[in-house]
Amino acid sequence: MMIKRRVMGCDSLKSSMITLVIAIMIMLGIVPAQADDLTQCSESFYGGVYPEFTNTKLSKDTQSLCFDGFAVMYSAVSRTPLWSAEYLTRQRLQQAKEIDREDSFHEESRLPDSDRAKLSDYSGSGYDRGHLAPNADMANRSQQYDSFSLANIAPQSPRNNRYIWRNIESATRYLTQQYGEVYTVTGVAFTNKKTTQLAGHVLVPSHFFKAVYIPAINQAGVYYAPNDESERIDVISVDELAAQTGIDVLPILDRQTKAQAMALPLQSGDDIEQPAKPNEEPTWVLFLWAIIDWLMVQLQA
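Request: output the structure for the sequence above.
Response:
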């Protein structure tokens, strides 16, 4: 009973600290413009803090969207999501295994007609309709239906989508089963000088990425792959991803975790390297220090 009370006390303190930090962020004016919308689905983000654009040009004509089971930042410029965030747990994935796939691709009705990707944009394009938040992560029919919104879809090379990316998604679920919980942010990048368009509307990304953070071991890494048939993939750090794409996908993490890429598995069942020494401090303490570190960076900016 004493141990249980102590754990509950830690959880209560952590919750209070998060509330205090968010209040301070609002007073200091360092909460991004879409905060009011994304607070409705803050459980999708580690610490309730969602990705930030280090390249402010990316924020043009963006719309934040809360879905059942994930959150999206959609761009009317590319007519694709720029990122999609999920919080995965063992329980969620167990529920997802019990649901058969039902394809239901649809246009996103919450977006203005002039900003939407259309089903016809993809017809005969030679590209797959690639999920950012994958269907196989969805725990119920409502989540599954939402995952087929074109606001969660980007043009993806068939071989990349059906082989490389399928393995990456399976590996992420494997990590969730192994460690109990995982925060992931999946997104696209446009780094080529010339960008292909589908039907003159939807931009084809040069790369896909999936950032993975495991709270149990305080490690993060990013799968980063060109959107082509080469089957190439790199594992990079959160900081390297920000340099490549202009998106800081996990801004609340401490500097060391963001700077170092964990050895992510390339397929389900692969082992990953463990930390040399386990963290001796409770997780909520590490989380608090990460928030303080992040706040100091914001105040110095």
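The chain has one domain: 43-283.
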